[in-house]
């Protein structure tokens, strides 16, 4: 029997890419499976899903808060309209299971699925579950989580630790030297890869740029992904590339190759931590400090507690302090190696397969 699965998740790439990874794993496990992506009409998920070859249905959505502001009332109206449009799409497609990977758009779609009596699987990527998934966990048939610690906040008996689904490319990374050649990097230099995410990370970018002159950059190279909206500003700040030949900024990176090339990674601590640990790389993490639930800080603390990362802070870490951390790690190969081993031990590169297996089992039963 041909199974039908709906995927949803949106608002940021961090919610969308795990859903795409699950879709890819579902196709491998069950080539005849029929997939549909339902997401926000104004988020990045439409473009990402279509590029991945998935049919996409947009619905209105918006973030809800506890306030009575005009913006919140508008979001509530979008949620109600979104539920009705999601119901219509679900009734037409008739999925066996709907899989949600986070973001406020999932509330409308999973609520609609429950009103139709359908099966639901959600994935929580953070160490401390977000508000949306905490509520949706009550109506889900199965909850998949990235971190062991998440199980304390979610219903017993239907929560399973799978890891965070990431792209299949992270299972077979190129050798470090091959990755550096592919990216046009010096094969022999100590290599730092700084990742700002698709939206960039303005404050860490500034700290990294200011720290660079304080690092022994004669024997170190830095590949810095800053996001599309920051690339021109960063290039203006740095000036003539010939004055800093071992510091290169890019809007986007081939992430599997970039992580494979790295001796050390500097990053936010959202979904990228799953890719970092799958690649077995030591990291310096700058959690985004303005989330109410501080989920990125908890993600980073999980890696720090296991000896895989060093924790920094947008608001208090200075360029000099970052330069000292880099210099300490670069000058201590044993410490760096131990961090890499700890990172690899946390990695779950087969997470997408695990989630796909759970989804297909629920669909069959």
Report on this model:
With about 375 residues, the protein is an alpha/beta fold. Helix content is about 45%, strand content about 15%. It has two domains: about 5-165 and about 350-365, Rossmann fold; about 170-345, Rossmann fold, CATH 3.40.50.2000. The longest helix is centred in the N-terminal third of the chain and has 24 residues, at about 70-95. The protein starts with a strand and ends with a helix.
Jot down its keywords.
single chain; 365 residues; Rossmann fold; 2 domains; 13 strands; 16% strand
Largest sheet: 7 strands, parallel
Q: Could you name the CATH topology of the largest domain? A: Rossmann fold
Radius of gyration from the CA trace?
A: 21 Å
Query: So what's the overall shape?
Result: elongated
**Helix and strand composition category:** alpha/beta
Which strand-content bin applies to the residues?
A: 15-25%
How many DSSP-defined strands? 13
CATH homologous superfamily identity of the largest domain: Glycogen Phosphorylase B
- Tally of separate domains: 2
Average residue pLDDT: 90
Q: Uncertain segments of ≥5 residues (pLDDT<50)?
A: none
Kindly, what is the distance between the CA atoms of the first and last residues, rounded to a whole number of angstroms? 12 Å
Spatial order of the strands in the main sheet?
A: 3-2-1-4-5-6-7
CATH structural architecture of the largest domain: 3-Layer(aba) Sandwich
* CATH class assignment of the largest domain: Alpha Beta
Number of H/I helices:
14
Helix content bin? 40-55%
Short description:
The chain has 365 residues and is of the alpha/beta class. It is built from 14 helices and 13 strands. It starts with a strand and ends with a helix.
